[in-house]
Design brief:
The chain is of the alpha+beta class and 162 residues long. It has two domains: 64 residues, no CATH class; 62 residues, DNA Binding (I), subunit A. Helices cover 24% and strands 19% of the residues. It contains four helices and seven strands. The chain has a five-stranded antiparallel beta sheet with strand order 1-2-3-4-5. Strands 6-7 form a two-stranded antiparallel sheet. The radius of gyration is 18 Å and the shape is elongated. The N terminus is likely disordered.
């Protein structure tokens, strides 16, 4: 079986390792050409041979920026990039989302972001990792939020900016 060549988009692993260490992240080899960046807000899985990157909690494989793949990887560990087409996660039916909102609201009847107490009518569902950044409609990616916090957050993730 022929060996795969390393992607031209990715520099050598020691270069990535040095940049990760400088950013306070750990580079971990998982075998079979699979590497992980650990220690950021999000776990980043990447395969240098193919140039594929996957940010944990998202539903789409990404590509590191060709201009600066190392900075692109380090950035993904802190904030997933916006994606053009969010892949599998699509808007769910209102009834399904209402049922999920009820389950979440019964568990924690306050805004995830500002901690204000909410009635069921005041509550909205917010995606921790927005659909625009490849997030999913999985219950683990959903939280209860007041309308003000949900609208203010939009597709951005201000809580991960330092």
């Amino acid at each position: 079986m022929p060996k795969r060549k390393r992607s031209r988009n990715f520099p050598a692993i020691p270069v990535i390792e040095a940049a990760a260490h400088e950013a306070g992240l750990q580079l971990h080899h998982c075998g079979n050409g699979h590497w992980q960046l650990r220690g950021g807000r999000f776990l980043v899985n990447f395969w240098p041979a193919t140039g594929t990157v996957h940010v944990d909690g998202t539903c789409q494989g990404l590509r590191a920026k060709k201009s600066d793949p190392v900075a692109s990887l380090i950035g993904m560990a802190n904030t997933p990039p916006e994606v053009k087409h969010a892949g599998k996660a699509k808007r769910e039916s209102p009834n399904k989302m209402r049922a999920k909102r009820l389950v979440l609201w019964r568990k924690t009847p306050f805004c995830h972001w500002c901690k204000r107490s909410l009635s069921f009518q005041e509550s909205t569902i917010d995606h921790v990792i927005p659909l625009a950044r490849g997030g999913t409609n999985h219950i683990k990616n959903l939280v209860i939020a007041c309308e003000e916090c949900n609208l203010k957050r939009g597709r951005d993730m201000p809580e991960v900016r330092a």
